[in-house]
Specification:
117 residues; alpha+beta; two-stranded antiparallel sheet; two-stranded antiparallel ribbon
Length: 117
C-alpha cells in the first residue's frame, strides 16, 4: 500500500489519504428536524465497512478509475470512486458567485494552513 501511495504522490494526483479507525471509536449524529441524536459506535448493523479513503485530483473519471484499479487489494475489497462537489457544480441561484468566491478563499486558507504544519 505504501508503494501505491508513493506512486500517486510522485504522479502529483494524491491530495489526501487516511485510514479510519473502527466504528467502535466513532459516533453517528442523526438529524430529525431540529433534533440531533448521537449514537456511539460500534455500529453492528453496518453492512459495508469504510476503512479509509484516498482523495486524488485527476482530469477525468476514467483516470480516477484507472488509479482505483491499481489499488493492491486482492480478496473481495471494493473501492468506490466518487467526485467531490465544487462551487461550479451548482447554478448561481443555488450557490451565488459571492458564496462560491468565499468557498474558494476557505480552500486556499486550508491549503496555506496545511503548509504551516
Amino acid at each position: 500500500m505504501g508503494q501505491f501511495n508513493e506512486e500517486m504522490v510522485k504522479a502529483g494526483v494524491l491530495l489526501a489519504a487516511e485510514g479510519l479507525q473502527a466504528s467502535a471509536n466513532g459516533a453517528r449524529v442523526t438529524f430529525s428536524g431540529s433534533k440531533r441524536t448521537v449514537t456511539d459506535g460500534p455500529f453492528a448493523e453496518t453492512k459495508e465497512l469504510l476503512a479509509g479513503f484516498w482523495m486524488i485530483q485527476v482530469k477525468s473519471k476514467a483516470e480516477a478509475i484507472a488509479w482505483a484499479s491499481r489499488v493492491p487489494f486482492t480478496d473481495g475489497e471494493v473501492v468506490e470512486v466518487r467526485q467531490v462537489f465544487e462551487a461550479a457544480d451548482f447554478p448561481a441561484e443555488v450557490f451565488p458567485p459571492e458564496d462560491a468566491a468565499g468557498e474558494l478563499e476557505l480552500r486556499d486558507e486550508l491549503q496555506r494552513n496545511a503548509g504551516k504544519r
